[in-house]
Amino acid sequence: MMNTTSAPVLHAAGISKFFPGSIALDDVELTLYSGEVHALLGENGAGKSTLIKCLTGAYRRDAGMIRLDGQEIDPRGPLDSQSLGIGTVYQEVNLLPNLTVADNLFLGWQPTRHGLLDRKTMVRRAGEILSGFGLEIDPSLLLSAYPIAIQQVVAIARAVEQSGKVLILDEPTASLDRDEIDLLFSVVRQLTARGIAVVFITHFLDQVFEIADRVTVLRNGRLVGTRQMDDVTQSDIVEMMLGRHLETHLRRRDRSAPGKSLLKLKNFGKRGMIEPFDLDLHEGEVVGLAGLLGSGRTETVKVIFGVTAADQGNAELRGKPVKMANPRESIAMRFGMCPEDRKTDGIVGDLSVRENIILSLQARQGWHRPLTRTKINEIVDHYVKALDIRLASPDMPIRLLSGGNQQKALLARALATEPELLILDEPTRGIDVGAHAEIIELIEHLRAHGMALVVASSEMAELVTYSNRIIVLRDRHHVRELEGDAINTGAIVRAITQQEALA
Amino acid sequence: MIRSPRLPLYITIATFILAFAICVSQYPAMLSTRVVANLLTDNAFLGIAAAGMTFVIISGGIDLSVGSVIAFTGVFLAVVMRDFPVHPLVAFAMVLAITISFGAAMGAIIHYLEMPPFIVTLAGMFLMRGLAYVMSTDSVPVTHDFYNTLQGIYWKAPGGGRFRMIGGLMILTYVVAMIVLHRTKFGQNVYAIGGSPVTAKLMGVPIAKTTIGIYAVSGGLAGLAGIVYSLYTSAGYSLATVGVELDAIAAVVIGGTLLSGGSGFVAGTFFGILIMGLIQTYIVFDGSLSSWWTKIVIGGLLFAFIMLQKGLSWATTMRRKPAAEFATRS
Which of A61, A86, A92, A243 has its CA 20 to 30 A from that of B264? Predict the structure, then answer.
């Protein structure tokens, strides 16, 4: 299908984009050929979305040139690039659920008769277009009546019908399950057969190997390389993305055996988020969750804490069946959690550090039994000291603290409820080296005092340091559990890339 | 069936038929062309204003200035015709130009200054009411022959009902509004903005033009409603039609339009108006009930329709089938 001998459909070279204080893209090149699926890979912050935004004109690039069919182009915005021939479909479907499928497909370029919309033609044409993609649906129904995968295909159809040279799919499969992904891929194959170049951005390596012809990897805003998929293995790609040589990290040996069982999850999962898994947590143990971004780390953590209620499986707390339907109940069962995204899910920026720390404890107590001022001060002083939170005064707004200190304040909030199970999602992201070491120290300390911890992290070396067990995830499956001496970064990478399963 | 976007409309129509049936079963006299004709005549100005409100609410906005604009229009017409030798038709054209520009200006402020419609139209409400007061604090009668001519136009139906011109004007308004909202690009853009302004912009909807257009339509129809009210009462009074915008909003919601925007039908609003009028007529027929019962019943109806909308949107998303069922090949 792919035709690399002819001239490329799209050639972008020397693309650079600077933001105040940082370089988002530095001299990046991307070449697309007619009829190919080109995967664009990189960890968070590698510059994938910045590159896409420069191509579609959502950002003004600071340097570089873009050629489409040999013609130099300078798109001024998504609508402009759309009319030039570059269509984009995002993870969150950018269509209107309150309109019908046909209306969505034709909004802005509706067929008219005598100045009025020709609805019959719209519905008929929409049906034809969609059946061209292998979908038999009634285009006169509301878009919201159909599942996300179908909406995704409608978005693709709209983009392709209007542009039809290059289609950019930005994480289209992130919220789809296997059947839906198959449907999407069959659509993508039909597009390439028509000669459209497809850029496919995802975190799922399996899918890249399944559908892509070539891959371009970015890291820290720079081009690592472009490869033919046939020439590379999953480990090659992981290495290109992570960029570190995967040496074995030494584990600490001074660990006592875990205590009695605390929480037992059986066949626990949520459709579309995380495949069912079993998990047995003990007192005094740290269970690490490892995997690439989007592998289901955060999703696992969310169903355990009840942020998203699981829709299958059952849970036992100390041998008694329990339901974990929402965070309130989880807090009542003495679970604590520090979420991944401090800014949006964690801190309440304008409240004081003091108020932020006692928030969960007060919520558990109920608002009709306020904590006394003395009690609050006692708790806050204790944790500020114990966690070494550096601040001018507990009354200052928490948003003024540094990232590391915010993270510690959030830990204090969770610890103030005296949890038996503490769930940490990316506890060391975006904090400086010193605070990093302190938080790792704290995890060790809590474990030694009999707390059960679940830690999700993208830092493999860090997980290896403190985990008693590591669960490796890929494609929202718990694929491998590593224990004791089997824990090392090499084993984690092998499990991520599934070489071990094949061996 | 549950996935049909028209379901709320059917429910409103069914409610109207049911309500009418209940009325007739208690007071058989209500099944007459007189009642129907009066229903149209008495609610004409409210109906026209509610048609404009439907555009605004479908776009996710609100227009609180409607009642004041109607009062302003009435006073303006009365004062202009009293003080200057202008023909009513000229006065009508003048006042429509004013109210359309006024609506367009509110739309422009809402869009360009990114202000919430609630606040902007609240300011518009005070402004228009204030202007009405400035022109006259008394009720100013209109005594032009042309008014008598217009008021004299009616079609006498068998059974004694007199279908007057203003009722016909309301129906004409609804027919035009239906065509504009459901069969033009402008109408589609109104729905698109109501669904999600951000997405609509990404899909190429001209947000500024459409927003200004929507409030211009609402302002213009409020002006038309004011003209009809002026013909209905033969006077202009600055204290008239206080709170009519709220009645219009109620009619729109009872008509099945989602208050959060993006979904609804002009025809639904028409039946919403008829339902509200019917409740009033019933209370008149009963004679013993306090007229405040109208408000209580409308309150109950509003609540029921809000619950219904919530239930419907919930049912739509819950009954999604897996994607694989729609695929013909893989």
Answer: A92
Cβ–Cβ below 8 Å for A136 and B205:
no
CB < 8 Å to B209, chain A: none
CA distance A319 to A204: 36
What would the pLDDT profile of B94-116 be if each residue is shown by its tens digit?
A: 999 999 999 999 999 999 999 99
Q: Which residue of A has its CA nearest to B329?
A: A134
Strand, helix or coil for residue A338: strand
Task: Identify the CATH number of the domain defined by range A10-242.
Answer: 3.40.50.300
ipTM reported for the complex, 2 dp? 0.84
Tokens in use for A438? 């302190």
Q: Hey, is the C-beta of A170 within 8 angstroms of any chain B C-beta?
A: no
Residues present in chain A in total = 503
- How many angstroms separate the CA atoms of B220 and B205, rounded? 23
CB contact under 8 A, B328 and A98: no
Beta strands in A229-347 (DSSP E): 261-270, 274-282, 285-290, 312-317, 320-322, 335-338
Residues of chain A with CATH 3.40.50.300: 10-242, 250-334+420-503
Please, what is the end-to-end C-alpha distance for chain B in angstroms? 28
Residues of chain B contacting residue A103, judged by C-beta atoms under 8 Å apart: 188, 191
Q: Taking the CA atoms of chain B, what radius of gyration do you get in angstroms?
A: 21
Q: Quick: pLDDT tens for B51-71.
A: 999 999 999 999 999 999 999
Distance from CA of B303 to the nearest CA of A (A): 22
Q: Specify the residue for token string 């120290």.
A: A441
> What average pLDDT does range B212-235 have in this prediction?
96
CATH 3.40.640.10 fits domain A250-334+420-503? no
Q: Yes or no: say if A398 and A340 are a contact pair by the CB < 8 Å rule.
A: no
Interface of B with A (CB under 8 A): 3-5, 179, 182-185, 188-189, 191-192, 194-196, 199-200, 202-205, 258, 262-263, 316-317, 319-324, 326-330
Q: Helix/strand/coil (H, E, C) string of chain B?
A: CCCCCCHHHHHHHHHHHHHHHHHHHHCHHHCCHHHHHHHHHHCHHHHHHHHHHHHHHHCCCCCCCHHHHHHHHHHHHHHHHHHCCCCHHHHHHHHHHHHHHHHHHHHHHHHHCCCCHHHHHHHHHHHHHHHHHHHCCCCEECCCHHHHHHHCCEEECCCCCEEEHHHHHHHHHHHHHHHHHHHCHHHHHHHHHHHCHHHHHHCCCCHHHHHHHHHHHHHHHHHHHHHHHHHHHCEECCCCCCCHHHHHHHHHHHCCCCCCCCCCCHHHHHHHHHHHHHHHHHHHHHCCCCCHHHHHHHHHHHHHHHHHHHHHHHHHHHCCCCHHHHECCC
- CA atoms of B85 and B89, how far apart (whole Å): 12
Q: How many CA atoms lie within 13 A of B26 on its CB side?
A: 12
CA distance B71 to B75: 6
Please give the Cα distance from A211 to A114 (Å, whole number): 45
Q: What is the pLDDT of residues A61-91, one digit of tens each?
A: 899 999 998 889 988 888 888 888 898 887 7
Contact A316/A288 with Cβ under 8 angstroms?
Answer: no
A94 touches B: beta carbon within 8 Å: yes
Residues in a beta bridge with A312:
A269
